[in-house]
């Protein structure tokens, strides 16, 4: 089966960001025998710069038969202003225009968060006469309206139309959370065409050959005896990291907060840290995905933080799986689906939404938890990954569904062509 996967923000593991699609594509080519082309931007969204040739060359040194990367230019931007809109539009337009002149795939799999790339994917699927799968990572335009205060009625109407259009026209919809599935079903979409494929972990992607905990604690700038909570991920308005940084004011000696990543809020967070003298807070640059597990292993617990907003009640950030994979207790500031998973599976605590003092208290509570409780948390996390977060199993499950979809589409096309007296 020939598949096109398109995600504007997809990145390979040697860069920080969304590696879901790269890892899934490798699973499909390596284990399912598919031919997959991953369409991704050469402008790295989280780092706000173009990906250099050396980073691309690292990937080319280990070729995977049947797996192709198509780097598309997109307009550079630093802030969330009109340039970011141009960034989205340029990627979607180039995806459509370039795809027109490529050999026909059997299926086009296009992912949000923004809707322009999936819309281009749907248009291409009509020209190529193939199946179209919509992956919903964020619920646009609801997220924009509730987080960024999008108020332009014309833009809202256009995005609402595009959202409904894609839900109706997609042959299959893939969601990452149960909340998203219920949200889309409530719009009158047949639940039978919606598949829940959550984020997960490529369990064979990291193996610790020798203990390097102290080395990575030194890299984080923390002392061997400091109890350390780590946040690894995007630094944007949706992540509400100001409250994580301010938790440093409530921490006594012997504790540290480390935030790894980048985004539009990074400079403001640095100012908050400096102006308030929060020397127990360390803000580090992004690191490649293959290294982030070393940092998580070197920390004592992991933090999941999102804004206190209804739209995030159904979130399942990939950090949830990263921390469990490393056997680290989780402190979540996010109520809803994440909190339910954390508490029901015994892998951490809820510290309250946007609550700096609550976060500090949660760190102190975990530090003094009995050893057997910490050991149980580690085992519970690995058990959850085995059941629900193994990306290889998730990829196989989805690929099986896609094969059925493509088989159905082909047979439907043959029947239609036969009725019209044409050759397929």
Automatic annotation (TrEMBL):
The name this protein goes by in its record: Glycosyltransferase subfamily 4-like N-terminal domain-containing protein
| Family matches, as CDD domains | GT4_WbuB-like (cd03794)
Matching entries from InterPro entries are given as: Glyco_trans_4-like_N
Keyword list (alphabetical) reads: Membrane, Transmembrane, Transmembrane helix
Highest taxon of source: Bacteria
UniProt cross-references to PANTHER family, sorted A to Z: GLYCOSYLTRANSFERASE, GLYCOSYLTRANSFERASE (GROUP I)
User: Where in this chain does the record put each Glycosyltransferase subfamily 4-like N-terminal domain?
Assistant: 16-200
| Transmembrane portions of the chain | 85-103
